Amino acid sequence: MVEHRGVGLSGRTQDGAALPRESVTIESAADDVVAVLDDVGAKKAVIVGSSYGSYLAQAVAVRHPDRVESLVLDSPMLSVTGDLAAVRAHRRSVLWEGDSPAHGRVAELVRHLADAGEPMRALGQVVQVVYEFAGPEILERLLRARLRGRLGRLWSSLTHLSTGELEGAGTPFYMEPAPVAGIAYGQLGYGLPPDGGPLDPQLTFAEAAVRQPDYTGEPLDLPAELPNYRWPTVVVSGDRDLRTPRPVAERIVELAPQGVLVPLANSGHSALDTHQLALLDVIHATLHGGSTRLPMMANRIAALPRKGASRLVGTVLTVAVRATTRPSR
Helix and strand tally (H, E) in the chain? Predict the structure, then answer.
């Protein structure tokens, strides 16, 4: 893995000064990846990126196509405005309108809570976390408990989860928002305004956005570049991903000439964080020329033991909610 410029030990210039924010861009970070390949003597590589890293991996491919053997894009991004529209539509279809029978009761409970005065920012945050990590059954139980005035402490904790990743010092060497704010807000539009609709992901960023760089436009037109990809492009997508949902993954596979979708069942956002063995299995197959077989292997890959920094979140949520609620009838 390559340490991102601005973060950890890569946050200083050679003379020890803090790296200026204006030098921390997607373009420069992509060139850094190639500098690392040069340093280790690698002519080409399988470039792997998760979430924002998938945008960066594609930036490497666009700027340095001769260095790419293949791409593995986990929970991928495609474009700022296009992705935002897709995320809003997907979240509202699944968890507000309940367009599929499997999610009808959950969507009804979400609407009831909104009608009861639950702030939409908190509601959207809790719904995202619980749905992605624990699934619709646990989310339904939690929503029913909230309507009855129960599990308030758990609800409050979930509304504040990951707020340290939005701005400030964050966690050194792991998640440092301040040095990369020019990318997050200035180039990728994290602070674009909410549209006033339900479950808007932009509500999460609205408070921090007023203190961050203005959006000046994304650096690449990836939808226009994808048809030019000359390598296998493997896309890993969790079925419960609400941040980079399946429609975005499917669009990438549609545009890339050698696009391959690897759907992961019972998974949310970022296999890198929640299902590392699955991601490693996908990388291994891609490295050895087996990318076209991956869709047929998806169920086996998804069933591998869960490992990753966030893998236990779903287990903790499930235990906490089931211990104090009864299943719905």
Answer: 15, 4
**DSSP code at position 186:** I
- Statement: residue 163 has pLDDT above 90: no
Nearest CA to 154 out of 327, 329, 318, 326 is that of 318
At 101, which amino acid appears? Answer: P
Asked whether residue 162 carries a pLDDT value surpassing 80, the answer given is no
Find how far residue 164's CA is from the centre of its chain: 16
- How would residue 329 be classed by pLDDT, with cut points 50, 70 and 90? low
Q: Are the CB atoms for 2 and 36 separated by under 8 Å?
A: yes
d(CA 178, CA 70) in angstroms, rounded, equals 31
223 φ, ψ (degrees, to nearest 5):
-60, -35
Cα(21)–Cα(25) distance, integer angstroms: 8
In this structure, are residues 277 and 96 in contact, taking their beta carbons and an 8 Å threshold? no
Phi and psi, residue 248, nearest 5° = -70, -45
Paired tokens of 210 = 């007023």
Classify burial at 86, counting beta carbons within 10 Å of its beta carbon; exposed 0-12, middle 13-18, buried 19 or more: buried
- Please write the tens of the pLDDT for every residue from 193-245: 999 999 999 999 999 999 999 999 999 999 999 999 999 999 999 999 999 99
pTM, full prediction: 0.95
Furthest-apart CA pair in the chain: how many Å? 65
Q: What is the distance, to the nearest Å, from the Cα of residue 111 to the centroid of all Cα atoms in its chain?
A: 25
